[in-house]
Amino acid sequence: MSADISKIQDDTETAMTKALNHLETELVKIRAGKANPNMLDGIVADYYGNPTAINQIANISVLDARTISVQPWEKNMLQPIERAITMANIGINPQNDGNVIRLFLPPLTEERRKELVKRCNHEGEHAKVAIRNIRRDSIEAIKKLQKEGLSEDLCKDAEQEIQDTTNKFIGYVEKHLLLKEKEIMAV
What is the pLDDT of residues 158-169, one digit of tens each? Predict the structure, then answer.
């Protein structure tokens, strides 16, 4: 039975780590004033009738702190990529010169910075909810083991351990949000 508890605790930690990794991925997409090719992750363009990620049909590079260059491998993909970036509504207007699409990041205004911090907090709240749902599922699994004959003391200890793990991961989320907020609010 204690092997079952260990498995539940390991699964809980693994799932919470995945939730934290997802938060990190989402926070990278939120721009903080400097160019980052990951800002275009998740944007898909029409590639011969198939929605395809831009980074699979073009070379994305950072020219300087405020400029991203998108060079399609096929010239006829300039228009679909430009359209996809515009439709993604990331707050940047693409500039097409016939060979390369350049994205010039405007300096962030105070209002825009606050919007981005709100967006970060929203993503952080999603991560916290995911972590709490994982905790709930794990505690339900432990209670099920208790009904199958596991001692109450072992169950209480396991629940406390899962709560400690939850608190640890919520703390990680808070740290990530704090760092991202500092990065965004830095002028």
Answer: 999 999 999 999
Q: In the CATH hierarchy, which fold is given to the domain comprising 37-104?
A: Gyrase A; domain 2 (3.30.1360)
CATH number of 2-29+109-185: 1.10.132.20
Delimit the domains of the chain by residue range: 2-29+109-185, 37-104
pLDDT at 135: 95
Q: Are 39 and 68 in contact, with CB atoms under 8 Å apart? A: yes
Task: Please give the residue that has the higher pLDDT: either 65 or 174.
Answer: 174
pLDDT for 187 equals 61
Task: Tell me if residue 6 falls in helix, strand or coil.
Answer: helix
| Residue at token pair 């998108």 | 70
Cβ contact 138:12 at 8 Å: yes
Local structure of residue 46 (DSSP, 8 states)? E
**Angle formed at CA 178 by CA 25 and CA 108, multiple of 5 degrees:** 75
Whether the per-residue pLDDT at 1 is higher than 60: the answer is no
- Could you tell me which residues are beta bridge partners of residue 178? none
